[in-house]
Amino acid sequence: MSEKDPYIKDRPGVCTVCGKVAFFDEFGNGVCPHCGWEMERDEEEMGRLQGISYPMLVPVWRAREQYRQGKPFKATFEDFVNGLYFYSEMSFVYKGILYCVMFSKGKIYMGHDEDCQFYDTREEFTEKANIGGRLLKDIWDEIENPSYLFD
Ligand SMILES: [Zn+2]
């Protein structure tokens, strides 16, 4: 293997969230062994423009906050809605049930087999989306794995 071998993958760098040494592949991606952040080359710009990151959804600036507070990385409801407008199809788990959120016929659909809801606007979804009458924004702490669909 020569020094120019394009298949040499890992390059040392600094994790954008915790600031410790991590390794990046040739695309600028990698998983930090210290904090678990999945680094992505365009995460700063994506966070600024879209309010999210890929693949972890949480924008990098919020991930730094959560790391400082010793919390696990988790998309907030706001991050989740930003993700919906970027990916068009999202999902989360509540009490073991997978819910899908996506655009359908110009509306925002949320639901699973036995529960279908439709909302006209981002504001209406943010304010009124609920599970059994409990507002999504109020029970977000109980929501698991908010992510793009089929993650
Ligand atoms: Zn890190």
Could you walk me through the main structural features you see in this protein, from its secondary elements to its overall organization?
With 151 residues, the protein is of the alpha+beta class. The chain has two domains: 11-68, no CATH class; 77-148, no CATH class. Helix content is 23%, strand content 30%. It has four helices and eleven strands, in the order ββββαααββββαβββ. The strands form four sheets. A five-stranded antiparallel beta sheet has the order 8-7-6-5-11. It is elongated, with a radius of gyration of 18 Å. Residues 15, 17-18, 20, 22, 32, 34-35, 37 line the site of zinc ion (ZN).
For the structure shown, list the relevant keywords.
151 residues, alpha+beta, five-stranded antiparallel sheet, two-stranded antiparallel sheet, binds zinc ion
The largest beta-sheet arranges its strands as 8-7-6-5-11
Helix content: 10-25%
What's the pLDDT, averaged over the residues? Answer: 91
How far apart are the first and last residues' alpha carbons, in Å? 36 Å
* Biggest sheet details: 5 strands, antiparallel
* Dominant shape: elongated
Attached small molecules = zinc ion
Number of helices, counting only DSSP H or I runs of 4 residues or more: 4
- By secondary-structure content and strand pairing, the structural class works out as alpha+beta
- The percentage of residues in β strands lies in 25-35%
Domain module count: 2
* SSE topology string: EEEEHHHEEEEHEEE
Number of strands: 11
Oligomer: single chain
What's the Cα radius of gyration? 18 Å
Low-confidence stretches: none
